[in-house]
YncE family protein
Amino acid sequence: MTSLRNTIGKSVLLAATMLATGSLARAGQAPGGLSAPDIPISHHDRVYAAEQFSNTVSVTDPADNKLLGVIRLGDPQPSNFSPLYKGQVLVHGMGFSPDHKTLAVVSIGSNSVTFIDTATNAVKHITYVGRSPHEAFFTPDGKEVWVTVRGENYISVIDPGSFEEKTRITTPNGPGMQIFSPDGKYGYICSSFNPETDVVSVAEHKIIATVKQESPFCPNIAATPDGSQVWFTLKDVGRTQVFNAKPPFNPIKTIDTGPITNHVNFAHTAQGTFAYVTIGGLNEVKVFRTDDFSQVATIPVGDLPHGVWPSGDGTRVYVGLENADALAVIDTTTNKVVANVPIGQAPQAIAYVPNAAPNPDDRENLQALGVAGQVAHLALMPKDGTKDGKTATSVSLFDQGLIQVLQASVTGLQPKQKYVLALADHGDGSGKLQPLAAFMTNPAGSAIVNAAGPIRQIVDRSAAPARRYLVIASGDAAMPGDAVQIEAQ
């Protein structure tokens, strides 16, 4: 009898353990539903990053955080200036099919969506859409690909079988990104030019509701795996908004996240569901609970964090560092960076695709990083030497042969004011200023500024005595004022 009781007791305990384990094992990660099974990290998984200045897609094995190579979709400058050029330019957005077999990669400069076979890394097709598309994603049933045509006023709906546009969904000018409810019923489309996020019936391709954005510039949007919330970022004012993913689609919360708030995504763990928000101007990722919206962590990650995506089991979150040419790997248990992977130039969108590689040893159609891995870094600080707790302006010089693309993640300036990035004769910002790029800061006193030229050769320490110095001055290119930020020494 005692033996029988022990046997029954052990069976009950085993059943309870299996039930608990099963519960944890069925805690799906974004963009899937909460009931989807978790997929443990393995060598069959891949992390992809869209890299806009090297025009590459990097491919990383998350099991050992090793770069396997890049898929080269286009050439760097100045090759891509030719009127006969056929490659892709400004590789930027990314989505993947529900069966994990196809990537859809958006290139802004060439108005294209490149469909890539994840098993072979081969390009299956290129579909050209309207002006300056931004992001693409598959509907949860895999029957359509929605592309935000940000330079115009519509969503291009593509048939992934024929790769042809089947219809368009008209929106306000500048749709920024779209994502879907896990059940596939709703599409959520935020705007980069208008203070309005649209909710669309996927079945009918019709706008059924609108949500007010607190600013016009939303670059990124994501839905929680339980289908209850939608989060979107406001890059110009440094905020993140949350609204009800179901009718009446009412606003729930606005969070002040910080200058150059870029992307948001979710990881579901045994402790709950957490939002990971990349803050480019602070070089941090901030982590929030989705139940009470409390901030639980601030994670320093490196220069200009941009895209973010969870692993298939929620144990890791991957962040593209736009001004560091790297992929930061965050352990969601400790919320600390546990690895950095060198990748291509200026990573934008990130996608973690479980079971993307049937043969994990296959390197077919991958190339070495090459020139895409060459970059120089500078930092600018306030001229008066006061830091006031503010992060330095980070500057990256991405090699493109003899010239570089310069990108500055500018922070710490006055909001909505004119400034100019320039070369100065002296390190203190004095002497003649040669303007490189004029810009206006956003309401958070930040900006992303680009220029091109043989700049590294001029600002490198070995260039003395002909060396010049990067500065930020008030005013505009016609009449630059005094330097307000100078190179950190």
